[in-house]
Amino acid sequence: MRVHVLQHVPFEGLGSIDSWLRARRAEVTCSRLYESPALPNIADFDMLIVLGGPMSVNEKDKYPWLVAEQQLIQGNIWVGKPTLGICLGAQLMAAALEARVYKNRQREIGWFPVTRVAGAPICFRMPKSVEVFHWHGETFDLPCGCARLAQSAACANQAFQCGYRSIGLQFHLETTPDSLAALIENCRDEIKSGRYAQSEKEMSAKPAEHFLANNALMGRLLDYLVRHFNQEE
Q1: For the segment 39-55, what is each residue's pLDDT rounded down to a tens digit?
Q2: Which of 10, 82, 162, 168 has its CA 20 to 30 A from that of 118?
Q3: 6-34: average pLDDT
Q4: Structural domain boundaries enclosing 142
Q5: How many separate helices (H) and strands (E) can be counted in the chain?
Q6: What is the DSSP string of 29-63?
Q7: How many domains does the chain have?
Protein backbone atom coordinates (compact mmCIF):
# COMPACT_ATOMS: atom_id res chain seq x y z
CA MET A 1 0.00 0.00 0.00
CA ARG A 2 1.41 3.37 -1.06
CA VAL A 3 0.35 6.20 1.24
CA HIS A 4 1.01 9.87 0.57
CA VAL A 5 0.88 12.47 3.35
CA LEU A 6 0.26 16.21 2.93
CA GLN A 7 1.96 18.00 5.82
CA HIS A 8 1.49 21.74 6.35
CA VAL A 9 3.79 22.51 9.31
CA PRO A 10 6.65 20.50 10.85
CA PHE A 11 4.99 20.26 14.28
CA GLU A 12 1.78 18.58 13.05
CA GLY A 13 2.72 15.09 11.98
CA LEU A 14 1.14 11.67 11.79
CA GLY A 15 1.04 10.99 15.52
CA SER A 16 -0.34 7.50 16.16
CA ILE A 17 -1.02 7.01 12.43
CA ASP A 18 2.71 6.41 12.01
CA SER A 19 2.58 3.15 13.99
CA TRP A 20 -0.52 2.03 12.04
CA LEU A 21 1.35 2.56 8.76
CA ARG A 22 4.46 0.78 10.03
CA ALA A 23 2.45 -2.22 11.19
CA ARG A 24 1.08 -2.58 7.66
CA ARG A 25 4.47 -2.02 6.02
CA ALA A 26 3.06 0.84 4.00
CA GLU A 27 5.26 2.72 1.58
CA VAL A 28 4.93 6.29 2.85
CA THR A 29 5.81 9.46 0.95
CA CYS A 30 5.24 13.03 2.10
CA SER A 31 4.76 16.49 0.62
CA ARG A 32 6.14 18.94 3.18
CA LEU A 33 4.34 21.99 1.88
CA TYR A 34 6.11 24.30 4.33
CA GLU A 35 9.31 23.48 2.42
CA SER A 36 8.16 22.94 -1.17
CA PRO A 37 4.85 23.25 -3.06
CA ALA A 38 5.63 20.18 -5.18
CA LEU A 39 2.83 17.60 -5.24
CA PRO A 40 2.71 14.04 -6.63
CA ASN A 41 0.50 12.63 -9.35
CA ILE A 42 -2.61 10.81 -8.14
CA ALA A 43 -1.33 7.65 -9.84
CA ASP A 44 1.70 7.63 -7.53
CA PHE A 45 -0.18 6.58 -4.36
CA ASP A 46 -3.10 4.47 -3.16
CA MET A 47 -4.22 6.49 -0.14
CA LEU A 48 -4.02 10.19 0.80
CA ILE A 49 -3.74 11.56 4.35
CA VAL A 50 -4.14 15.33 4.76
CA LEU A 51 -2.85 16.65 8.10
CA GLY A 52 -3.71 19.75 10.09
CA GLY A 53 -2.13 23.19 10.25
CA PRO A 54 -2.69 26.68 11.66
CA MET A 55 -3.43 28.32 8.31
CA SER A 56 -6.89 28.79 6.82
CA VAL A 57 -8.21 27.21 3.65
CA ASN A 58 -9.15 30.76 2.66
CA GLU A 59 -5.57 32.12 2.88
CA LYS A 60 -4.69 31.27 -0.72
CA ASP A 61 -2.93 34.61 -1.26
CA LYS A 62 -0.57 33.84 1.62
CA TYR A 63 -0.25 30.13 0.84
CA PRO A 64 -0.70 29.77 -2.95
CA TRP A 65 0.03 26.04 -2.83
CA LEU A 66 -3.39 25.56 -1.20
CA VAL A 67 -4.96 25.81 -4.67
CA ALA A 68 -3.07 22.88 -6.18
CA GLU A 69 -3.37 20.91 -2.94
CA GLN A 70 -7.14 21.29 -2.95
CA GLN A 71 -7.23 20.12 -6.59
CA LEU A 72 -5.20 17.03 -5.68
CA ILE A 73 -7.58 16.21 -2.82
CA GLN A 74 -10.59 16.71 -5.07
CA GLY A 75 -9.14 14.42 -7.72
CA ASN A 76 -8.31 11.72 -5.19
CA ILE A 77 -11.87 11.76 -3.83
CA TRP A 78 -13.35 11.68 -7.32
CA VAL A 79 -11.31 8.66 -8.44
CA GLY A 80 -12.40 6.82 -5.30
CA LYS A 81 -9.12 6.33 -3.48
CA PRO A 82 -9.08 6.38 0.36
CA THR A 83 -8.78 9.92 1.66
CA LEU A 84 -8.46 11.01 5.30
CA GLY A 85 -8.46 14.69 6.29
CA ILE A 86 -7.67 15.89 9.81
CA CYS A 87 -8.65 19.38 11.04
CA LEU A 88 -7.30 21.65 8.26
CA GLY A 89 -7.27 18.50 6.14
CA ALA A 90 -11.01 18.03 6.70
CA GLN A 91 -11.61 21.69 5.84
CA LEU A 92 -9.62 21.26 2.62
CA MET A 93 -11.70 18.20 1.78
CA ALA A 94 -14.90 20.17 2.38
CA ALA A 95 -13.65 23.03 0.20
CA ALA A 96 -12.61 20.55 -2.51
CA LEU A 97 -16.22 19.34 -2.48
CA GLU A 98 -17.40 22.95 -2.92
CA ALA A 99 -18.53 23.54 0.66
CA ARG A 100 -17.93 26.81 2.50
CA VAL A 101 -15.16 27.05 5.15
CA TYR A 102 -15.44 29.87 7.66
CA LYS A 103 -14.80 30.95 11.26
CA ASN A 104 -16.63 28.94 13.88
CA ARG A 105 -18.68 30.84 16.45
CA GLN A 106 -16.06 29.97 19.03
CA ARG A 107 -12.61 28.47 19.11
CA GLU A 108 -12.49 24.84 20.26
CA ILE A 109 -9.19 23.87 21.91
CA GLY A 110 -8.84 20.94 24.29
CA TRP A 111 -10.56 17.67 25.16
CA PHE A 112 -14.31 17.81 24.52
CA PRO A 113 -16.87 15.17 23.55
CA VAL A 114 -18.32 14.59 20.10
CA THR A 115 -21.51 12.62 19.62
CA ARG A 116 -22.46 10.28 16.83
CA VAL A 117 -24.87 11.36 14.12
CA ALA A 118 -26.82 8.57 12.43
CA GLY A 119 -25.49 8.19 8.91
CA ALA A 120 -26.18 5.94 5.95
CA PRO A 121 -25.59 2.18 6.39
CA ILE A 122 -22.29 2.42 4.48
CA CYS A 123 -20.85 4.96 6.92
CA PHE A 124 -18.16 4.49 9.53
CA ARG A 125 -19.85 4.16 12.90
CA MET A 126 -18.49 6.58 15.48
CA PRO A 127 -18.99 5.84 19.20
CA LYS A 128 -22.20 7.25 20.63
CA SER A 129 -20.08 9.76 22.54
CA VAL A 130 -16.30 10.06 22.81
CA GLU A 131 -13.99 12.72 24.25
CA VAL A 132 -11.48 13.76 21.60
CA PHE A 133 -8.82 16.43 21.15
CA HIS A 134 -9.68 19.64 19.28
CA TRP A 135 -7.63 22.60 18.08
CA HIS A 136 -9.53 24.68 15.55
CA GLY A 137 -11.11 28.07 15.05
CA GLU A 138 -12.84 27.41 11.73
CA THR A 139 -15.55 25.06 10.56
CA PHE A 140 -17.28 24.11 7.29
CA ASP A 141 -20.67 23.41 5.80
CA LEU A 142 -21.47 19.77 5.13
CA PRO A 143 -20.58 19.13 1.48
CA CYS A 144 -23.45 18.16 -0.80
CA GLY A 145 -23.96 14.41 -0.94
CA CYS A 146 -21.89 13.71 2.16
CA ALA A 147 -22.99 12.18 5.46
CA ARG A 148 -22.35 13.89 8.79
CA LEU A 149 -20.81 11.44 11.28
CA ALA A 150 -20.33 13.50 14.46
CA GLN A 151 -21.13 16.83 16.10
CA SER A 152 -20.24 18.69 19.29
CA ALA A 153 -21.78 21.43 21.39
CA ALA A 154 -19.36 23.94 19.87
CA CYS A 155 -19.34 22.76 16.26
CA ALA A 156 -22.09 21.11 14.21
CA ASN A 157 -19.87 19.43 11.61
CA GLN A 158 -17.18 17.46 13.40
CA ALA A 159 -16.83 14.58 10.96
CA PHE A 160 -18.20 13.67 7.53
CA GLN A 161 -17.95 10.90 4.98
CA CYS A 162 -18.06 10.98 1.18
CA GLY A 163 -18.87 7.58 -0.32
CA TYR A 164 -17.04 4.58 1.15
CA ARG A 165 -13.52 5.92 1.00
CA SER A 166 -13.25 9.53 2.16
CA ILE A 167 -13.59 10.80 5.74
CA GLY A 168 -12.87 14.24 7.19
CA LEU A 169 -12.32 14.74 10.93
CA GLN A 170 -12.35 18.18 12.52
CA PHE A 171 -10.66 16.66 15.61
CA HIS A 172 -7.40 14.81 16.25
CA LEU A 173 -7.73 11.09 17.04
CA GLU A 174 -4.04 10.67 16.20
CA THR A 175 -2.92 12.80 19.17
CA THR A 176 -0.14 11.42 21.37
CA PRO A 177 1.44 13.09 24.41
CA ASP A 178 4.38 14.14 22.23
CA SER A 179 2.24 15.56 19.41
CA LEU A 180 0.11 17.44 21.94
CA ALA A 181 3.23 18.95 23.54
CA ALA A 182 4.48 20.06 20.10
CA LEU A 183 1.17 21.70 19.26
CA ILE A 184 1.07 23.57 22.57
CA GLU A 185 4.67 24.69 22.15
CA ASN A 186 4.12 26.08 18.65
CA CYS A 187 0.57 27.43 18.97
CA ARG A 188 0.50 28.63 22.57
CA ASP A 189 -0.61 32.10 21.48
CA GLU A 190 -3.92 30.65 20.25
CA ILE A 191 -4.92 29.46 23.72
CA LYS A 192 -7.49 31.95 24.96
CA SER A 193 -9.94 31.63 27.80
CA GLY A 194 -13.37 30.52 26.68
CA ARG A 195 -16.14 28.02 27.15
CA TYR A 196 -14.49 25.54 24.82
CA ALA A 197 -10.82 26.34 25.42
CA GLN A 198 -8.77 24.54 28.05
CA SER A 199 -5.51 25.56 29.68
CA GLU A 200 -2.20 23.89 28.89
CA LYS A 201 -2.41 22.08 32.22
CA GLU A 202 -5.90 20.74 31.51
CA MET A 203 -4.96 19.55 28.04
CA SER A 204 -1.82 17.78 29.24
CA ALA A 205 -3.41 16.12 32.28
CA LYS A 206 -5.07 13.25 30.41
CA PRO A 207 -3.71 9.79 31.31
CA ALA A 208 -1.97 7.66 28.71
CA GLU A 209 -5.01 5.40 28.47
CA HIS A 210 -7.09 8.28 27.12
CA PHE A 211 -4.66 8.95 24.27
CA LEU A 212 -4.47 5.23 23.48
CA ALA A 213 -8.26 4.91 23.30
CA ASN A 214 -8.41 7.77 20.78
CA ASN A 215 -5.54 6.23 18.81
CA ALA A 216 -7.35 2.88 18.72
CA LEU A 217 -10.43 4.58 17.27
CA MET A 218 -8.22 6.18 14.61
CA GLY A 219 -6.86 2.73 13.79
CA ARG A 220 -10.37 1.34 13.33
CA LEU A 221 -11.27 4.25 11.06
CA LEU A 222 -8.17 3.69 8.92
CA ASP A 223 -8.92 -0.04 8.76
CA TYR A 224 -12.42 0.84 7.56
CA LEU A 225 -11.13 3.02 4.71
CA VAL A 226 -8.55 0.49 3.58
CA ARG A 227 -10.91 -2.49 3.93
CA HIS A 228 -13.45 -0.98 1.56
CA PHE A 229 -10.68 0.01 -0.83
CA ASN A 230 -9.23 -3.51 -0.90
CA GLN A 231 -12.63 -5.17 -1.28
CA GLU A 232 -13.34 -3.35 -4.53
CA GLU A 233 -9.89 -3.56 -6.07
Answers
A1: 999 999 999 999 999 99
A2: 82
A3: 98
A4: 2-232
A5: 6, 9
A6: EEEETTT------GGG-SEEEE---SS-TT-TTT-
A7: 1
